[in-house]
Design goal:
The chain is of the alpha/beta class and 166 residues long. The chain has helices spanning 15-34, 55-64, 75-78, 81-96, 156-162; strands at residues 2-3, 69-73, 104-108, 132-133. The protein has one domain. Helix 2 (55-64) runs parallel beside helix 4 (81-96). The longest helix has 20 residues, at 15-34.
């Protein structure tokens, strides 16, 4: 899972971090509680990082061993050097394995200017990946996601988009 914390000076637990982590937790719970074929699934986000080792090397190693990358897209993601590195490492490791571009899933948490998206997240015509939209459909930059800022337990729009086929 790759996401920006949306760090803001003076705010200890920013809303983007809370929303993204709640999304990750609910997605993990939904997958693991409904599908027994995923019992051995290992889902990593930075809360699982070993605080006693170098973060860059640790993240690079985890990304290089990953079978897929889920991006929580936001304007802050696009401006994050950490997120850029994670995406680059993921794309690079798939190129070394000669398996194509790999599997990248995009959760559109906050609307973004799609022209700013990295080229690897665009098709041959330059259009951004469709991804999974968790905010009202708009082309405006900065529309907040369903359940903002804390992804409340009862949020019909969020759950409808989390389970589009079931």
């Amino acid at each position: 899972m790759s996401y920006s914390h949306g760090a803001v000076p003076g705010i200890e637990n920013p809303p983007l971090k809370r929303w993204s982590q709640a999304f990750i937790d609910r997605l993990k719970a939904d997958i693991l509680s409904t599908r027994n074929d995923f019992d051995s699934l290992d889902i990593f986000d930075d809360r699982d990082a070993d605080r006693t080792t170098g973060l860059s090397d640790q993240l690079k190693n985890i990304v290089e061993q990953s079978g897929l990358l889920l991006i929580v897209m936001s304007p802050r993601y696009l401006g994050s050097s950490w997120c850029t590195d994670e995406l680059d490492w993921f794309v690079e490791q798939f190129a070394h394995r000669h398996k194509g571009s790999g599997r990248v899933f995009i959760v559109r948490s906050i609307s973004t200017d799609e022209e700013r998206w990295p080229e690897v997240l665009k098709d041959s015509r330059g259009h951004s990946d469709l991804g999974f939209r968790f905010h009202p459909a708009t082309n405006e930059d900065g529309t907040t996601p369903y359940g903002w800022p804390d992804l409340l337990d009862k949020n019909e729009d969020f759950y409808k988009d989390l389970r589009p086929f079931g």
